[in-house]
Amino acid sequence: MSVRQVSRRDPKKGTVRKFWMIDIDYEYPDGRRERIRKVSPAQNRRSAEQYERDLRQALVDGSFGRKEAEPPPLFGAFADDFLKTYAATNNKESEVQTKGSILRVHLTPVFGKKRLDEIKLRDIEAYKAAKLKAKLAPKTINNHLTVLRRLLAVAVEWEKLDFVPAVKWMKVPDPEFDFLTFEEAERLVAGADGLWKPMITVALKTGLRLGELLALRWDDADLVAGRLMVRRAAARGKIGTPKSGRTREIPLSLDALRALKEHRHLKGELVFSDEKGKLLAKTATKWPLWRACKRAGLRRIGWHVLRHTFASHLVMRSAPIKAVQELLGHATIEMTMRYSHLSPDVRRDAVRLLDGPSGGVNGNLTATRGEGGPN
Questions:
Q1: 209 is an active site residue
Q2: C-alpha closest to that of 205 among 287, 317, 330
Q3: CA diameter of the chain
Q4: Which of 99, 128, 144, 243 is catalytic?
Q5: Closest alpha carbon to 152 in 91, 111, 110
Q6: Is 51 among the catalytic positions?
Q7: Average confidence (pLDDT) over 18-25
Q8: Which one of 217, 248, 282, 330 is the catalytic residue?
Q9: Among residues 8, 304, 317, 352, which one is catalytic?
Q10: Is the pLDDT higher at 111 or at 350?
Q11: Lowest mean pLDDT: which of 52-66, 252-266, 308-322, 348-362?
Q12: What is the span of the domain harbouring residue 137?
C-alpha cells in the first residue's frame, strides 16, 4: 500500500506519534527502480492520497527531484554580471566601454529594478517612444536595443531566462555618405601641412579608418614591397584589434608610398604620432583636417569621408566591388555595395551581355517560334 498511517515512539518523551506517509516503489522505463518514502505535508488520508498521486505524476513526467527554478535576477544586477563576465571576455575594450555607457546612462535607469522576465514587448516599445521624445536618433536607439537584446539572449544562454522578448527595430534611412571628387582630394592634400599632409594622403589612398591610422606602426609598412598590414586600431586612447577583428593587407599606391618614405622618422614605432612619439588623441586630429579643408576651399569633413573617398574613387575607376570590400575590411559585401552606383560601367556592361551570341545547347538554336518549333 502506497499510503498508510504509521506510528513512531519518541524515545525521549516516550509518547507515540501517528502520521500519514507515502511509500512508493517506482520502476523507470529504463528498468531502474527507486523507492520514495515521504511524510505527507497535510496529515489526513485524503491529502496524503492526493500527495501520492502528485508524486507518481512527477515521476512519470520527469519533474520529480528537480529543484524549483530560481526567479530571474533583476536587470540591474544582471547587467553588472553581463559586463564583467560576458562582455569582458567576448568584446574589445572599446566595445565593453560602449556597452557599459549604454547600460549605465540609458537602459539600467529604465529597466534596472525589473526582473528580466518582467521586460515585455510593451516595455521595450515604451522605451523607444521615450527616447524618441528625448530627441535621440533612431540609429542611436537601435544601438541601445542591440545591447538590450544581447543581454537578454545571454540570460537565456545562462538559464536565467526562458526566452527573449520580441524586439522591433526602429526604421533607419539608408546612410548617406560624402566623398571628395578627384580634384577636391588633390586640393585637400595641397592644403595640408606638417605631419597631416602624409596622414591625409595615406588615408585617401588606403581607406584606413582613423583608429587604424593612429595605431599604424612602421613594422606594418613594407616600403620595399609597397604594402601595409592593418593589424591594430586605436580606440579611447588604447590600441586593440581592427573593427573587423581580422588583419588585412593593402597594396600602396605610388602617392601613398612616396608620402610614407618622405615622412619616415625616428620618434618611435608609430607612423603618425605626437612630437614625443606617443599615440595621438582622436580629438587632436579634427582641427588639422578642418584647417586643410579651409585652405583648399572645401566644406568641413571628417576623417571617415577620406575612407569613403578611397572606396568611391576605386569604384569610379571600375575596380571590382569584391576587391573594394577586401581593401576596406568590410564584413559583408552589402556594406560595400553602397558605392556600386558610382561605377559608370556596371549597368552598361550588364546590358551588353545581351549582345553576345545567342543559342541553345552549344550555342546552336535548333528551333524557333514560327519555324517548326513549339508554340
A1: yes
A2: 317
A3: 115
A4: 243
A5: 111
A6: no
A7: 85
A8: 330
A9: 304
A10: 111
A11: 348-362
A12: 75-157
